[in-house]
Fold each of these.
Amino acid sequence: MLSKKRMYWVVAIVIAVATILSGCAGAKGGGKVLRVNLGTEPPTLDPALATDTTSVQCDEVLFLGLTDFDDKTVEVIPELATEWSVSPDGLVWTFKMRKDVEWVHYDPVKKKVEKKGKVTAHDIVYGVRRTVDPATASDYAYVDYIIKNAEAINTGKNTDLNSLGVRAVDDYTVEFTLEQPAGYFPGIAGMWVNRPQPRQPIEQFGDKWTEPGNIWTNGPYMLETWEHESKMVFVKNPYYVNAKNVDIDRVEAVMVVEESTAFAMYENGELDVVGVPSTEMERVKSDPVLSKELYIAPYLCTYYYGFNVSKPPMDNVKLRLALSYAIDRQKLVDTVLKGGQRPAKTFACPGIFGSPADDPNFVGVSYDPAKAKQLLAESGYTGTPEITLMFNTSEGHQRIAEFIQRGWKETLGIDVKLANQEWKVYLQTVNTDAPQIYRLGWCADYPDENNWVLENFHPTKGSNNPKWSPDDPAAQRFMKAVEDAAAASDPKERARLYFEAEKILVEEQAIIAPIYYYTRVVVTKPYVQRTYAPLGGEHWDKWKITK
């Protein structure tokens, strides 16, 4: 194995030769190249099936939505839509669409792009129906339960897909009818699950429609390469509506799981942007070069441990509470994470409408060893059955799990086993049969508490990975609170109801143990001018390379 120093010089020589041959630093084939790390294999590129941040990042640059979010203000802005309106009763939303967006097919062998026709309202209708159709088996279809008949269709109670509350008024006008008023719906309308989907390649290639050479896209980039478990390459779409303002011609994305390896690649000049491992934080902050490339800011995400309440001993609420009270969140931030994160006392993070994260009246759960020991004693737990904590394979998640594992042993005397799985497999495990304790992070799809508590933990309308029974009286109070909040129009009343829902979720029932509110901790090369997306995928098409 090459030493780090020797490897650095080998990489430096290779880069120097490549630069001379290309005639332009950072360029390939006369174009500008951005090199990033996806961190893992995206489970899918199918907008109807995506549930994770890696897949969403890819979909963000391949497919346009009706709306998007402004990188600075987080306001909903037009993308495919040019304008929208809502009926006086708040139930019918109408979106007018631009008429100049093309479906394109890219042949990665011949390096040729072919127009396949305009993106129309019919493609939106097809995409939404496909997401809700139970035959598609979309794990994110519950997001659309706000649309009339979506829940009934997705759960098989209604077999008439045409009765779904979405229709093309004409080729460039799409109309949604909702189950109840939802002022946040324009944010949902632009989510990946509701983006236009191309019927022809889907019907022609089935599950393989998203492979290079098969896929049709309409966004700023096209898919050239997908070497599974290794890398992806995205190339600029010349027919993109704003192609003249897209500076970067090619995005080369690797799938390096180990944070330390990815960071070494950044230092060796092989990546242009990368997250900073917690083990490197002190060095980066003190380094005269790296410190100038470091960016730390709050991010609309929460890191948490979920409890599968259907699996003993996690069906014991006092044991769940004991485990939550025994997590020293501040020490975790100070000694392991070191990136300015905040200990979490709620599921929804600060910056989300309805979150009580900054409400001084919301107590939540914080580190309290004495209370944890008392609750453990009251729980009657004696060490059987054994407890397993599972996380997706990652050095960072491993360090966090080991810290919390030690804390549970020292505070409660409980031995917890650790297990991990590769990301794609792990997602399937958590979505179908979550382990006793599982690690997840949740990042906002749109900045409203509805996207957090209802869509994740409602026993019948959300993903409900904890397998919380709708027959549980506490679950019934939770369901009523989030359903009433979703239907309410008064912001104060909505906030009050979400306060109650978070209290039940975190403080009373410990369905989850929120751990910390994320910060974005990244380093970016000085020749990359970039934006920072507050939610959803990064907008690589808005970035520039200046060398």
Note: The two ends are 33 Å apart (CA to CA).
Amino acid sequence: MPTSLRALRFPRRFLADESGAVAIIVALCLTMLIGFLALGVDLSSLYARQKTLQTRADLAAVSAVSHLADAAEDRARATVTGNGLEATAMTGIGYARFTRDAALPAADRLAERSQGDPDVNAATVSLSEEAPLFFARTFLAQDSTRLSATATAARFDFAAFSLGSRLASVHDGLLNALLGSVLGSSVDLDVLDYNALADADVDLLSFLDALALRADLEVADYSEILDADVGLPAIAGALLDTGAIAGSTTVLTTVLDSLTDATLGVSRLIAIEGEDVDVQVEDILPRIQVSALDILFSALEVITADESRIVTADLDLGIDGLISTGLQLAIGEREGQSGWITLGERGATVHTAQTRLKLDLDLGTALVADLLPSLDLLSVRLPLYVEIASATATLSALHCSATGPDDPAASFDTESGLVSVFLGEFTPPAFSDQSTPLDPDSPAFTPAELLAVDVDLDLLGLPLTELLNLLGLGIGDIRAVVAAKAHVQVAEALTDSQDFTWSQVGQQASYSSGDLLGSSLGSLIDGLDVSVSVETGSISLSLINRVVNFVLNALSGVVTPLLSTLIAPEDGSLFPGVDPILDSLLEALGIRIAGADLTLDGVNCGAVMLVR
């Protein structure tokens, strides 16, 4: 075959020869596969680092929300560094209010807040870090890429607390008067009957379950029970139905057997503040224990305020020399949506009603006879009015990060209103008109008759009475009357704080500015406006002017030491003084002068939830 022909056939064979083609294809595909593998390695690495960064953001948000009240940012940063990141990796922290309401769009459930806002319950933490690239750097003009993660955690902590309605002591006369005022009949129950209720603790879940049955409420949840109006007999029956009363049930059966139609809203006793608390209410109620007497007494207090009743009682305090103690008590209207027990998150507030009372003390003359040895005392009387403005407590912090017995559990901002003390008389309707404060400059405030004296004309050592009788000029009895009025305002509104430790949950704490009552009564004596009048018979003779002047001088000089003996006697006096009498009555009413009785009924530290 000619050489030229062979040369022509070689290209044809070469072009037709397919051996070795697989190697070429494999080489091309291998290049692509290695590229995808490199990309997959980088993507997997970035995904793993992103997940790790998100987990660290979640942990930081949980740490922050667990310490919202104090060191949220410091705790979050410590969590970040503790998980292997630099402190600078935390690029931001924010605070918000998260509301668990399925009816709200997801975007509307988180509302931005500042850390100090009372309703803040969520924290958002943002993290960022540089993630290295391995194979992708071959295709990209960079060695790393920035990853970021954001997490939001919320915590639903709340407390149950009550203010000013806890009975520190039981006084059957006072409670009989209050109960009788509401029932419209005379009540004569023994202190043992009331103590049986004071010794019985009732959990709020059992009480509300029993109340729904007693009041024939057809409800779907506890919120509907709290929104209902019920009669006082239904409340008494519910307390009986709980089975917690181990002693006398006479008080409750007295209410059940009465014909009273008095009603009140259950929310006036138990108020829920916040949607998040409402969600958990069924889990909370069994943990809150209150005494049956407190529930009944608070219901009576609300009814008395709503119907503007004045409770009147003549109390026997068992004090030598105290003939009678007339008490009138008026309870003002409570602030709207402020129940006796409030369940709420930080920022929840409970408010007590204004209280005013009149205390009319009729004293035995033997108590002060040594101050007026030459005069025949007819009566000694001390009428006092005390107006105690309202008190407020606001839950300012819940401390759920530490649970040791001496660690703080909850903190409250407290405020107590003005206290005014009056010595004198208020003509009707000044005392019963709760819409108008008692005014010392009002014409309705008049001097009260404190002391009445029968004057003997022979007190100067002269037989004036016999001489005048011989002349046929008998003038009858001469009577001297000491009248006085005074007013003192204790102080302006007082603001303070009250802390409870975990060992004090379920206990009561009284807050006030100290011995304001004693100081106010001392100022009351200093501000006395005293007048003395002498009444003679039908004939007045100039001859008795010396007697009249003597009486005026003697009585004017003895009024201040006389009232000092009655109000704040020295040790060894027969009479204990007005201060302890008022203290004991206010204690029985659960009222503090310029303060209040605050009880932390329970604390619920809810689980932390990642919400975004």
Note: Residues 471-476 have pLDDT under 50 and may be disordered.
